[in-house]
Amino acid sequence: MDPQNLLIIMTAFVIIAAIALLIQAGLLFGIYKSSREVQATAQRLAPKVEALVESSRIAVDDSRRLIGEVAVKTSEILDCARKQIYRVDDVLDDASARARVQLDRAEMVLDDAMARAQETVALVHSGVMKPLREIQGVTAGVRTAISFLIRGGRRDPARATADEEMFI
After folding, report:
1. DSSP 150
2. Across residues 70-77, what is the average pLDDT?
3. Model confidence band, residue 123 (pLDDT cutoffs 50, 70, 90)
4. What are the phi and psi torsion angles at 152 (to 5°)?
5. Taking the alpha carbons of 103, 109, 113, 114 in that order, is the dihedral positive or negative?
């Protein structure tokens, strides 16, 4: 290659490199201006963000304190509820035991009443019904004797035959 051509190619590349450096310098200046604008905006927002952070911290601290109070009160409520449940359980146990005793007593009273009723029925049967049946039997015999005496002494032979045929 010819030194003249080489010099021209090198000059062209140096010019291209210089243009690229100028473009980079312009871009860096744009980035610098943008960062300054962002910094200015951040400086304007910094007090607001700090106030927000401070109020958030205060709110979190208040929330922690309130959550602690709620936890303590919840624990007290649970302890009280546990005690009440134990009391209710004791009352239910006592009530069921008493109910069981009362049911046993009621069963004994009912059994006794049934036994007495059966004794009374037996006494009525033996003391009242038996004499009534005996009286009824005697009355039937007297009635039959009176009807026999009123009718006359003898029966009709046709009827006597019918009565005998019933037993044959």
Report:
1. H
2. 93
3. confident
4. 120, 175
5. positive
Q: What is the pLDDT of residue 167?
A: 60
Q: What span, in angstroms and rounded, lies between the C-alpha atoms of 49 and 43?
A: 10
Give, rounded to a whole angstrom, the gap between the first and last alpha carbons of the chain: 167
State both tokens at 114: 């049934």
CA distance 28 to 30: 5
**Residue found by looking up tokens 């009824």 in the block:** 136
Residue listed under structure tokens 């080489």 = 6
Which residues fall within 8 angstroms of residue 155, CB to CB, at 6 or more apart? 163
How far is the C-alpha of 156 from the C-alpha of 98, rounded, in Å? 78
Mean pLDDT along residues 32-40: 94
